[in-house]
Amino acid sequence: MAKNGGVASNGAVALLVINTDRSAALSLDVRDAAERYTLTARNLLDKTVELNGSELALGADDALPQLTGIRTRAGRLTFAPASITFLAVSKANNASCRVVSYLHAGRRRNGRRLPTKPMYLRAAETPHLRAASTP
Fold it and tell me: What is the reported pLDDT for 108?
């Protein structure tokens, strides 16, 4: 909770890693722990897709399956050939991704009215990953 009744996010970021190489894995050094969601197929022309190694399939009455990420630690991550991965970094603390909104419309501080709409704080971005040599 921010001062004066505001709610603040923690600067979370989402990273998208697409390994287009059909035969070689890709490695990246990731600075923060993340939830990993990797999409793969046994064959690129298959009609099924796997999320973190489990086949995605509709449930009863075409209900969407539960999408569960895998917790990963900070450090070197390897991405399979021909894969798409989303990394949800909840504690990235990226200043460009922080949102502060004030809950109390019309409140004043130092004679100035506080904003009632979300206020986006801009600052220099922090790099959260860097390319690493392939394993």
Answer: 60
Cβ 88 vs Cβ 34: under 8 Å: yes
Strand ranges for the chain from DSSP E: 6-8, 13-19, 26-30, 34-40, 50-51, 54-55, 70-72, 75-79, 83-89, 99-102, 108-109, 112-113, 119-120, 129-131
Q: What are the residue ranges spanned by the domains of the chain?
A: 3-126
Q: What is the pTM (predicted TM-score) of this model?
A: 0.66
**Domain 3-126, second-level architecture:** Sandwich (2.60)
Four-point Cα dihedral 27, 28, 33, 39, nearest 10: -60
The set of residues, in sequence order, having a beta carbon less than 8 Å from that of 24 and lying 6+ positions away, is 81, 134
Give the Å distances, CA to CA, from 71 to 7, 89, 104, 121. Answer: 26, 10, 36, 28
* pLDDT average, residue stretch 86-93: 86
